[in-house]
């Protein structure tokens, strides 16, 4: 791990990061966080699992400057709102993802905000700059945009294929960055 990555144990919980994951310099990963195989967490991201947990599935990526957090237990919601990110998920640069579920192959656009108690179903997409407010659910293969976000249209097979090419790109690019960084720290 690069020396400019902070892995912080909090409340007896230490982040668990799969050995194949790429964690870029500048990242801060705190508390009850689990990062799966071939995940990439890009430069200057914060993943803060302090009052609940964060789980990120295989091959997903969290792009530069994004923040992932959780929501505390509360009356009527004793489990609170963890952040659960499925497999093959794309999260764009500078996104804010908070106490929500993003199912497999979901997409969060650049600068988008996903608030607590929301769900992005499989192959669903929140457009760049959009804000998904509490209690909303993006259906499978739906594109939502705006502030607050609203349904725009269904996604085509071509759009879904493009998203999966993006996932493959980030897996390969993450491994290239990891090798370059490891080469620099070993020299």
From TrEMBL:
UniProt xrefs under InterPro entries: Hexapep, LbH_gamma_CA-like, Transf_Hexapept/Carb_Anhydrase, Trimer_LpxA-like_sf
SUPFAM superfamilies in alphabetical order: Trimeric LpxA-like enzymes
A Pfam match: Hexapep
The keyword Transferase belongs to this UniProt entry's keyword annotation: yes
GO terms, molecular function: transferase activity
Coiled coil regions in record: none
Keyword Transferase annotated: yes
Key words of the record: Transferase
This protein's name: Carbonic anhydrase/acetyltransferase-like protein (Isoleucine patch superfamily)
Origin species: Novosphingobium hassiacum
Taxonomic lineage: Bacteria, Pseudomonadati, Pseudomonadota, Alphaproteobacteria, Sphingomonadales
